Amino acid sequence: MHPCRSDRRRDPAVVLSGSRHNRSDGHASASDARSTPVFQPAGSSETHRSHRRQPDRRPCVRHTQSDESHIHERPHPRHARLPCRHRHSKRSAMHHGFQQCSILRRSAQRVHSLSGILHRKALRPSARLHSRYSAHSSLSVVYLMDSDNHLNARRPEVIIEANIPFIRGILEPVADVSYLEPERFTPETVATADAIVTRTRVKCCEDLLGESRVSFIASATIGLDHVDLPWCRSHGITVVNAPGCNAPAVAQYVFASLLSLPDFGPLDGKTLGVVGVGNVGRIVADWGERLGMRVMRCDPPRALAEGATGFSSIEEIAAEADAITFHTPLTRTVDCPTFHLCDDSLLAGMTHRPVIINSARGPVADNEALIRALRDKRISNVVIDCWENEPDISRTLLDMAAVATPHIAGYSRQGKIRATQMAVDALTAHFGLPATQWSEKMADGAKATISAGLIAASYDPMADTAMLRRDPASFERLRNHYHLREELS
Question: 261-401 — its CATH code?
Answer without folding.
Answer: 3.40.50.720
